[in-house]
Write a structure and sequence with these properties.
The chain is an alpha/beta fold and 333 residues long. It folds into two domains: 171 residues, Thiolase/Chalcone synthase (Peroxisomal Thiolase, Chain A, domain 1, 3-Layer(aba) Sandwich); 150 residues, Thiolase/Chalcone synthase (Peroxisomal Thiolase, Chain A, domain 1, 3-Layer(aba) Sandwich). The chain is 33% helix and 24% strand. A five-stranded mixed beta sheet has the order 1-7-6-4-5, with helices on both faces. Strand 12 and strand 13 form a beta hairpin. Helix 3 packs across helix 4 and helix 8 packs parallel to helix 9. The longest helix has 21 residues. It is globular, with a radius of gyration of 19 Å. The two termini are 29 Å apart. The model has no long low-confidence stretch (mean pLDDT 96). Bound molecules: oxa(dethia)-CoA. The site of oxa(dethia)-CoA has 20 residues, from helix 2, helix 6 and helix 8.
């Protein structure tokens, strides 16, 4: 039976893990017709992390999860729910979340994956917080993890310079206090989903035509279409999630955006009329890690002391689907 009291879900632990191997822009100059200058000025990216051949999203997830549990002072057996946001699952089944559950020994946890691409972590946090709000579960481990290096076409300069591998995780717990997740806003528009695709089982002629022969299962993106959508939706989703709780952009202490392109972040900052110091970015180090970008950025912002108790945070993402999502939360540890 569900508990009648609706409770907030607060982040009590945060962790991340990125592979050791670094691929720099100058390394990419040797693979495709590109330049460090183009990548830096058009995207803000300087390097990205690449998982070893036999390392997949579940392994990055498990490591990030253990860091987050340690930060929360919790044992794996205490976890009641695991959600992994990923578009680079190890397998179609079992889910990456089930593999992680086994890897970390979270024997009492329910586990499933969420596929909402770069918005996946925001979608997953929203889902987890509903379970906590209703009293169904007392805590949740929410992970964003990707090994995009395994699905990019390393001959396609339009995409291979953009993406990287990594994982971030948070532990959510119920709280009766006025902190934690205060508001959320999610959206999807499948009619424009073909701007960013990774084929699964369906073999479609028009998707085949977009790719080089023999590279059917790789990531393809119409970058400029996604770019235009992203700037607008990031600003709108930020305003909407604040509007829900009667707050405005001036009330925000820190925005943790999805890290796809520094020009998208700067464009959204301009639309929002918010100072760039209030927006955390680390894209230069990792590139776009899809569902992992926001939790890895959150972890770094916390480690760097950029988030203090009582701060109002907005986490905002957009991506494949196309999807978008934002969460407003009052930080307290
Ligand atoms: O996470 C959510 C999903 N991803 C995104 O949000 C990404 C959104 N899109 C973007 O970040 C940008 O659109 C890109 C970084 C992908 C591209 O930047 P752009 O300023 O929109 O460039 P463009 O697509 O208009 O291309 C400009 C030129 C083209 O050459 P021509 O046709 O003008 O001669 C491209 O062929 O830049 C060329 N180009 C490159 N040149 C050197 C594309 N990729 C590269 C490259 N190196 N890696």
């Amino acid at each position: 039976m569900l508990n009648q009291t609706v409770r907030n879900a607060g982040i009590v632990g945060v962790g991340s893990y990125v592979p050791e191997k670094i691929l720099t822009n100058s390394d990419l100059e040797k693979i495709v017709d590109t330049s460090d200058e183009w990548i830096r000025t058009r995207t803000g990216i300087e390097q990205r992390r690449i998982a070893e051949e036999d390392v997949f999203s579940s392994e990055l997830s498990a490591r990030a999860a253990m860091n987050a549990l340690k930060d929360a002072g919790m044992q794996p057996e205490e976890v009641e729910l695991i959600i992994v946001a990923t578009i680079t699952a190890d397998m179609l089944t079992p889910s990456t979340a089930c593999i992680v559950q086994h890897k970390i020994g979270a024997i009492n946890a329910v586990a499933f994956d969420v596929n909402a691409a770069c918005s996946g972590f925001i979608y997953s946090l929203s889902i987890a917080s509903q379970f906590i709000a209703t009293g169904q579960y007392k805590n949740a481990l929410v992970i964003g993890a990707e090994t995009l290096s395994k699905v990019v076409d390393w001959q396609d300069r339009n995409t291979c310079v953009l993406f990287g591998d990594g994982a971030g995780a948070v532990v959510l717990k119920a709280t009766d206090k006025e902190y934690g997740i205060l508001s959320m806003h999610l959206g999807a528009d499948g009619s424009i989903g073909r701007n960013l695709t990774i084929p699964g089982l369906a073999v479609e002629h028009h998707e085949m035509e977009k790719r080089r022969p023999g590279n059917y299962r790789t990531l393809w993106m119409d970058g400029s279409e996604v770019f235009k959508f992203a700037v607008k939706i990031m600003a709108q989703a930020t305003i909407k999630v604040l509007d829900n709780i009667g707050l405005g952009i001036d009330d925000v202490d820190m925005i943790i955006p999805h890290q796809a392109n520094i020009r998208i972040v700067n464009g959204a900052a301009k639309l929002l009329k918010v100072s760039r110091e209030k927006i955390f970015t680390n894209i230069e180090k990792y590139g776009n890690m899809s569902a992992a970008s926001i939790p890895v950025a959150l972890h770094e912002a916390v480690k760097e002391g950029k988030i203090r108790n009582d701060d109002l945070l907005v986490m905002v993402g957009f991506g494949g689907g196309l999807t978008w999502g934002s969460i407003a939360l009052r930080w307290f540890r």
